[in-house]
User: Which sequence fits this backbone?
């Protein structure tokens, strides 16, 4: 069942905005595999979405209709259809090391209204939801940390146990770089950033950060973590 439509006349909450945003990949088959920034296995997905490039602009958005939650067979088929991630990283949101299974959940599968000639990493939003002026001008700039986040990071940065020898260097929110910004309903803005974190033992994940920005308030942060595999 689709989430209730958000209209321009309603004043959506920050959580409403986060629920309306999806992130994922469109394939040459016209299928669109997406994740969300609300980590709820029972969540309801928009019945229709508009999507555009996550790492690169498109002249116009692509529309897609909800099909179902993908099966393991769906995920294996789509993963096998990915182009070489070493050649086209901007097209590989769901790429994994050595084609390991996609383990991210929850996910949703959509069908594009028109065929797309290439696989492409995308950001999307519920159709009828006014996300406008998508901009890549800040791409590559560091995502600004709030004072609360700085305090949180300082508290969480503890050395590993004495019996654990790190094989990789962990990274955290301080490493996030901006991918895009846009205007959202209710005089708000959204900002999407990302960073890679191999953790202490090389379990590589790409963390996508959605900030919902309300004037005169600190941004509300939402996360989607894509697990890439063991380095």
Assistant:
């Amino acid at each position: 069942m689709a989430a209730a439509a958000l209209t321009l006349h309603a004043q959506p909450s920050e959580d409403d905005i986060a629920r309306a945003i999806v992130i994922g990949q469109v394939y040459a088959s016209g299928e669109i595999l997406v994740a969300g920034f609300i980590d709820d296995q029972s969540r309801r997905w928009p019945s229709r979405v508009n999507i555009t490039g996550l790492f690169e602009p498109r002249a116009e958005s692509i529309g897609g209709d909800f099909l179902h939650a993908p099966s393991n067979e769906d995920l294996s088929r789509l993963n096998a259809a990915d182009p070489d991630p070493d050649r086209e990283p901007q097209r590989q949101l769901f790429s994994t090391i050595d084609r390991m299974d996609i383990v991210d959940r929850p996910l949703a599968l959509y069908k594009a209204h028109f065929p797309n000639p290439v696989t492409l990493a995308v950001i999307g939003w519920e159709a009828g939801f006014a996300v406008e002026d998508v901009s890549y001008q800040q791409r590559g700039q560091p995502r600004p940390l709030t004072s609360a986040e700085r305090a949180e990071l300082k508290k969480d940065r503890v050395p590993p146990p004495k019996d654990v020898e790190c094989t990789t260097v962990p990274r955290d929110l301080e490493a996030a770089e901006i991918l895009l910004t846009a205007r959202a309903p209710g005089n708000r803005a959204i900002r999407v950033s990302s960073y890679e974190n191999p953790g202490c033992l090389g379990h590589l994940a790409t963390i996508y950060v959605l900030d919902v920005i309300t004037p005169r308030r600190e941004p509300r942060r939402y996360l989607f973590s894509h697990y890439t595999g063991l380095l």
About this structure: DSSP finds three helices and eleven strands in the chain.
